[in-house]
Structures are given as C-alpha cells and as structure tokens.
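Researcher: I'm preparing a figure for a lab meeting and need a structural model of a single chain. I don't have an experimental structure, so a prediction will have to do for now. The sequence is pasted below. Please return the structure as tokens so I can convert it later.
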Amino acid sequence: MTRSFSLSLLTIGATLSMTAGLALAGSDTVSSDQILNALKPKSATRGLSLGAQVDPAVTAREAAKEATILNKLRNRQTRSLSLGERQEIAEIAANKPKLDLEIHFDYNSANISKGATRAVQELGKALSDASLKGSTFVLSGHTDAVGGEAYNQDLSERRADTIKKYLVEQYGLNGSNLVTVGYGKSRPKDANAPFDPANRRVQVVNMDTETAAQ
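Model: Understood. Here is the structure written out token by token.
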C-alpha cells in the first residue's frame, strides 16, 4: 500500500478551554493565509465573555512550565525524544492553535513528492509572517496504522524532520524554534478508522507567542 500523505487541511483553533474546527474538504491547494489564520493565537476575550475564569498567577506558572519544557527540547534530535517527552508535548499542544497538513511523500520515504511542494511552500510563507514572530512551532509526524509500530515511529520522525529541514533551508526559519516529534500510528486523526490515509499527516502547532529562542 502506498505510504503517502494526501493533500488536504484540517484546522483547529484553541482559545483557553474552547476549541473550534474548520475543515476545508475537497481543497487541493492550501493557502498561506489559511495556514496563518489557523495558527494565529486566539484572543482570550472570547473565553472570558463565555464566563471562563482565568487566574493570572496560574496562567503565568503554566506558561513558565511550558517554556521550560520547550527549551529542553530545542535542537534535540527527533528520535532522541522519550515517550514521556512526546507525551508532554502532546499535552501542551492540546489547546494550542494547530493544523494538520496531509502532504504526499514518496513511497516508503520521507522525501516530499513534487505534487506536495506547494503546500509546504505555503506553510513556509505563513510561518515567516511577522504576526507569528516570537512563536515556537511543533512539527509532529503521524502515520496510519499500516505496518509495524517501530516502522511507523521512524517514518513519522523522518517526515517531521524533512519538513523542518525544508523550512529552515528554503525560508530561513530558526531551527531552534521548530521542535520536531514523531508519534507513528499512536495518535490517529480518526481513531475509528486507523488505516485511513487521513491519519498520515504532519501537524503544526503554535506553542506560544513568547517562547521563541533569543
């Protein structure tokens, strides 16, 4: 079975404990504006207007904890992350602005296919936008359930690394602000259909607007 990512986009924005999703079904081109809108931090005003109570002291402690974890992971080799560290990233990312890019890769490879280059270019344009300056992004690789656990874990890590390398080399992004992680087949987008190609993706998460390396 061809192990490639199909091109589509699912965007999910998070504000405090509130989340909202937008699916661009049938779209064969993902624009940098769409990516940018998905990754922009959401205003806390919406959450407050819905009655959410925010303790500034708690928020500050959580932000400091997140920054400590992210700083520990900067410039780490993707395959060096432990299961516990991957879990920490997932917990922090849960309520952050994020999107899933399903990008074609060559068969049994981490090489981006020619047909998917434009999607990665649009991602590069979006992450280069001034409005996202100061952000740390997590690039997480995911696969479907076809194949063994070790195989998929390695493949997901290599594909996340490929996207990071492209963004650094082609768009001059600071590699220290791109944290890569692989989840193999452990976190399918559709848990009810683990073999679905939609589970093959690279997820991009804006972890914070004040955690970038100086």
